[in-house]
Automatic annotation (TrEMBL):
Membrane keyword on record: no
InterPro entries to which the protein is assigned, alphabetical: Homeodomain-like_sf, HTH_RpiR, RpiR-like, RpiR-like_SIS, SIS_dom, SIS_dom_sf, WH-like_DNA-bd_sf
Organism: Mesorhizobium qingshengii
Alphabetical list of CDD domains matching this protein: SIS_RpiR
Domain HTH rpiR-type as annotated: residue spans: 1-77
Keywords: DNA-binding, Transcription, Transcription regulation
Domain of life: Bacteria
Entry protein name: MurR/RpiR family transcriptional regulator
Amino acid sequence: MSVLNRINAKLDAMAPGDREIGQYIVDNPDQMLRLSTAALAAEIGRSQSSVVKFSQKLGYASYQELKLAVSEAKAQEWQVPAGVIHGSIEVGDNYQVILKKLIGSKLLSMQQTVAANSERIISRTLELLDGARRIHLVGVGASSLVARDFSYKLMKLGRNVLHDSDSHIQMANVSTLGPGDVLFALSYSGASIETLRIAELARKRGTMVIAVTGLHDNPLSRVADIRLYTVADEERARSSSITARDAQLTLTDLLFILLVQKQPDANDYVHNSEAAVSVLKADRAS
C-alpha cells in the first residue's frame, strides 16, 4: 500500500491539523515534493513542527523520508514503457529479463530524481554556478566519475573548474577557496567522510556548498547551502551504484544544458573545443 493510499485511508481518523496536512499531500503530491517543511506549513497555514510530527506519526524519521515515500508512490503511477520491467534482478533471470529490469530501474531513478527537485532550486543552483569565480567538484567512488564528467562539460564552457580524484588534493584545493567560489559535492549516502570533511572546510572558508545527495537526512545535506536530491533504488543493483550514478548524471546533464542556454557564447566555446579535438582525431587517422 503506497503512502498516499495510507494517508487517504487514515484521513477521517486524523486530528484536524493532521487532516489538513494529509489532505494537501493526497491532493497535491507533485507540489508537496517541491516544498520544504516551512513552505508546506505556510501553504496550508500550519506550523513547521506540525509537518515534521505528521511525518513521524506515519512512521518516517523525517519529512525528507516522507517525501521519498511520496516520490516512490508517484513513480509507481508512471506508465512503464512497453517491454520494460520494474523489479529486482534475480540470479535466475535470463538475459532479456535482466535487460528489461535494468532499463526499468534506470528510467524510474531518473523520473523520481526529476520529480524530487523543484524548478526554483534548479534555477538557484544555476545562478550560483553561472556566477561562481571558481567551481570545485568533489566526490569519491562512482560520484567522482560523475564529478569528472561534469567538470569536463563545464570546462568546455570556459568555466574555471577544479577537480581531482585524490581526496587529499581535493582538500588542498578547497583550502584555496573563498567567498564567490562554489563547491559542488556529490554523495548519494551523504556520509562519505572525505566529501563531508571537504564540504565542512568549504563552509568555513565562506564558500557556497551545493550538495547532490539522497532524500534521506544525512550529514552532507546538513552542511550544504543548496540541496539537490537524487533518488536511486540501490537495493535492486547491489554490485555498484548504478542507479545513483544515473540519477546524478541526470541532474548534472540538466544543469549543463541550462548553462549552455544561459551563456551567450556557449556555442562558440563548444565549437572551439570540438575543433581542437578534431585535430587530434585527424592526426590519429593519418
